[in-house]
Amino acid sequence: xxxxxxxxxxxxxxxxxxxxxxxxxxxxxxxxxxxxxxxxxxxxxxxxxxxxxxxxxxxxxxxxxxxxxxxxxxxxxxxxxxxxxxxxxxxxxxxxxxxxxxxxxxxxxxxxxxxxxxxxxxxxxxxxxxxxxxxxxxxxxxxxxxxxxxxxxxxxxxxxxxxxxxxxxxxxxxxxxxxxxxxxxxxxxxxxxxxx
Length: 196
Description:
Helices cover 21% and strands 29% of the residues. With 196 residues, it is of the alpha+beta class. The mean pLDDT is 82.
């Protein structure tokens, strides 16, 4: 099958989000990983040890009501910020000797994600941010926040490089056509271009 996935929205957006975060969250200090939006306690324990940590979670897709044949909408993403106090509990929020704390992480993440335009995709906008807790976690030194944002995009089948009839059969789509008993069978080739 000739299906090409490198131009699909989620796959294309994730490295760009990481690159954007790295403008203010350098690799030597901040761990950044892809995570599920809901974590198990075991997974959270591992990530809390990486503090300061930023998790990137894909949350979903919301289609625009005005979409026509070309599906337009917004990919929904979430940043999960985890910080563990290095000394007194107040450093959880206000920062330690390096000036890092959950307050600064949240402010910077919000500023980075809002109003940013991803190349060949669309613009990003923050839709909300809040403090959260991890169910089953009792370490007072650890604080968590999440930043929700969305990225405008289109889902275009032309970018999947579907070429042969077998490519389309693999998608398991039934093409609905009106049967005409007098019609002559026609063989047709469908070519999709890369235009958005």
